[in-house]
C-alpha cells in the first residue's frame, strides 16, 4: 500500500507539507498550527508533528504519493493539480482574513479598445506566475472557455499568432498593474482582493484602468490530505481544524497560518467550482503548457 512505511516507526507522526520558495518564513507560519493540532490528535495515535517543504507542485505530488506528507494547505488550482497527480483529497475550505471565496479580474487601459475577454484575441496579457490560481490557472482556463488559444511569449514585443492571446509572467501583482499602465502589455489579471489593494494597484494607475472581465467565484484556499491517510486520522484532523476557530488557544496559530480565520466544510457549490477548476487545470496543462 502507498504510504505503508508510515506504519510502525512513523505512524505516530503527522507531516504538514508546503510548496515554498521561502522555507524559513513558511516554517514560522506553519509550526504554531501544527503544534496546536498534534496534542489534540493523541486519541488517533499522533504524538509528533513535522514540516516538509517542496520546491514545486511536482515534488509535493511525489511526497504525497510516497506517503511522506500527510496534510497540505494550498490554493484551489494547485490543490486540484495535487488531486490529479497524487490523489490528494480535499478536506476543508480555508477562510483567510474573513474571505472564503474570491474571483479573478481582467483589466486593461481605459483608453484601449479592450472591453470584453473576446477582445483579447491578438493581444497579450500578463499573468503572475505558473503556480498562481487567481493570476494563471483560473484566468487561463477562462480564456480557453471563451474559445481563445493561448501562447507563451518571450517578451512583450513578440508577435502573436492570429486569433491567439499571448501571455507573459510578471512575477508580482504590482508588476502586472505597472506593465498594463505603462502599455508594456495590453491586459492583466489578478484576484479581486489584489485588484482592490492599493499596494498592488496604486490609485495613480487605477483611474487609467478598466475591468474587462471576471471569472466565477472559487474557494480561496483548501486543506488537503494524502489519499491513503488513515481515515481515523483524517477525520480527527478535520474535526480539530473546524473546532479551532472557536478555541481561544488557537487564535495566534490561525493568525500566523496565512491569516486563517476559520476552516469550513466543502459545500456542494464549492465542490462544483473545484471540479470546474480541476477540468480547467487539466485543460491548461494539455493545451497551454
UniProtKB/TrEMBL annotation:
The record's section on Pfam families has: Phosphonate-bd
Q: What SUPFAM superfamilies does this protein's entry cite?
A: Periplasmic binding protein-like II (SSF53850)
Domain of life, source organism: Bacteria
Question: What protein is this chain from?
Answer: Phosphate/phosphite/phosphonate ABC transporter substrate-binding protein
In its UniProt entry, the species of origin is given as Lysobacter firmicutimachus
Q: Top-down, what is the taxonomic lineage of the species of origin? A: Bacteria, Pseudomonadati, Pseudomonadota, Gammaproteobacteria, Lysobacterales
Amino acid at each position: 500500500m502507498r504510504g505503508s512505511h508510515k506504519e510502525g516507526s512513523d505512524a505516530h507522526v503527522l507531516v504538514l507539507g508546503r510548496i515554498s520558495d521561502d522555507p524559513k518564513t513558511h516554517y514560522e507560519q506553519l509550526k504554531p498550527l501544527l503544534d496546536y493540532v498534534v496534542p489534540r490528535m493523541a486519541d488517533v495515535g499522533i504524538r509528533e508533528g513535522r514540516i516538509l517543504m517542496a520546491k514545486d507542485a511536482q515534488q509535493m505530488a511525489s511526497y504525497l504519493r510516497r506517503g511522506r506528507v500527510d496534510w497540505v494547505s494550498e490554493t484551489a488550482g494547485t490543490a486540484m493539480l495535487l488531486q490529479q497527480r497524487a490523489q490528494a483529497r480535499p478536506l476543508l475550505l480555508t477562510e483567510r482574513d474573513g474571505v472564503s471565496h474570491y474571483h479573478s479580474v481582467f483589466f486593461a487601459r481605459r483608453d484601449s479598445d479592450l472591453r470584453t475577454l473576446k477582445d483579447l484575441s491578438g493581444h497579450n496579457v500578463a499573468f503572475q506566475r505558473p503556480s498562481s490560481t487567481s493570476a494563471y490557472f483560473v484566468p487561463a482556463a477562462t480564456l480557453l472557455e471563451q474559445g481563445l488559444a493561448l501562447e507563451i511569449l518571450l517578451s512583450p514585443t513578440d508577435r502573436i499568432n492570429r486569433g491567439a492571446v499571448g501571455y507573459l509572467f510578471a512575477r508580482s501583482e504590482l508588476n502586472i498593474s505597472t506593465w498594463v499602465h505603462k502599455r508594456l502589455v495590453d491586459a492583466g489579471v489578478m484576484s479581486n482582493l489584489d485588484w482592490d489593494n492599493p499596494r498592488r494597484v496604486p490609485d495613480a494607475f487605477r483611474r487609467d484602468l478598466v475591468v474587462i472581465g471576471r471569472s466565477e467565484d472559487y474557494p480561496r484556499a483548501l486543506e488537503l490530505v494524502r489519499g491513503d491517510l488513515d481515515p481515523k486520522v483524517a477525520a480527527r484532523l478535520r474535526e480539530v481544524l473546524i473546532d479551532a476557530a472557536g478555541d481561544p488557544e488557537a487564535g495566534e496559530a490561525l493568525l500566523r497560518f496565512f491569516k486563517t480565520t476559520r476552516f469550513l466544510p466543502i459545500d456542494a457549490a464549492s465542490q462544483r467550482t473545484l471540479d470546474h477548476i480541476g477540468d480547467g487545470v487539466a485543460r491548461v496543462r494539455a493545451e497551454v503548457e
